[in-house]
């Protein structure tokens, strides 16, 4: 009897240590990602920081409320998007014409340029699947940042396609990684759980880009998990 009690205590202690270590490494990674985001935001002029600070604070509060891998992936994705937008914003600002009375308007237009590129690509992808006979729900455009990581939902009587769209530059230093794919799969599971009616159809998860921005880790992950996720490249100007 004493042996079994000792074994049980050892098991409980071991599980506690594992949970402690997992929470420690999650929090360490979370702080590192946030630091990268704040450093990039602080490189902007003071009057341009607030919108990005609000986004970062909003997604970080999600992780603080529920510390798990899925929410950590969401924080990482948002930081990647913020860094990408700021880098492109800086390139565009350098091209501005000074002393132009339309400067203020141009700045506002450029502020939404990247978001507009994303929306236009989502519409392009939606039309592509419409031509294949699917009905389309533009989840990202309709719900914005509340889209739960799914931009498009394409469906017919037999199947449902859950789609993430990325319209990134081909020469961008940022790539789709295996972490992005894992986060998308996690978002899909959450969506399916919250919408059980679609479970009577065949469900596919598609990650669609306008050019080849998949990293080696992403391609390897897709190759090993073909039943979970597919990639597709639809050229878009």
TrEMBL record:
Domain Restriction endonuclease type IV Mrr intervals: 117-227
One of the record's GO molecular function terms: endonuclease activity
Pfam families found in the cross-reference section: Mrr_cat
Coiled-coil region(s): none
InterPro entries, A to Z: Restrct_endonuc-II-like, Restrct_endonuc_IV_Mrr, tRNA_endonuc-like_dom_sf
Keywords from the named record: Endonuclease, Hydrolase, Membrane, Nuclease, Transmembrane, Transmembrane helix
Superkingdom to which the source organism belongs: Bacteria
Transcription regulation listed as a keyword: no
Gene3D superfamilies, A to Z: 3.40.1350.10
Keyword match Nuclease: yes
TM region positions: 6-26
Name used for this protein in its record: Restriction endonuclease
Species the sequence originates in: Caminibacter mediatlanticus TB-2
């Amino acid at each position: 009897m004493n042996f079994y009690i000792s074994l049980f205590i050892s098991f409980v202690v071991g599980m506690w240590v594992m949970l402690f270590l997992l929470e420690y490494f999650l929090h360490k990674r979370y702080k590192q990602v946030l630091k990268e985001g704040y450093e990039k935001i602080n490189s902007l002029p003071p009057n341009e920081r607030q919108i990005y600070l609000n986004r970062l604070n909003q997604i970080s509060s999600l992780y603080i409320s529920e510390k798990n891998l899925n929410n950590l992936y969401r924080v990482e994705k948002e930081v990647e998007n913020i860094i990408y937008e700021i880098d492109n914003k800086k390139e565009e600002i350098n091209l501005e014409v000074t002393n132009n009375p339309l400067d203020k308007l141009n700045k506002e237009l450029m502020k939404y340029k990247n978001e507009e590129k994303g929306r236009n690509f989502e519409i392009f992808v939606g039309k592509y699947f419409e031509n294949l006979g699917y009905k389309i729900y533009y989840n990202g455009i309709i719900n914005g940042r509340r889209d739960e990581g799914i931009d498009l939902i394409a469906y017919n009587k037999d199947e449902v396609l859950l789609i993430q769209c990325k319209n990134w530059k081909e020469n961008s230093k940022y790539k789709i990684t295996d972490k992005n794919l894992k986060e998308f799969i996690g978002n899909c599971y959450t969506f399916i759980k919250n919408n059980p009616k679609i479970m009577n159809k065949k469900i596919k998860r598609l990650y669609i880009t306008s050019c080849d921005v998949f990293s080696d880790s992403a391609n390897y992950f897709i190759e090993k998990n073909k039943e979970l996720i597919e990639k597709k490249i639809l050229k878009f100007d």
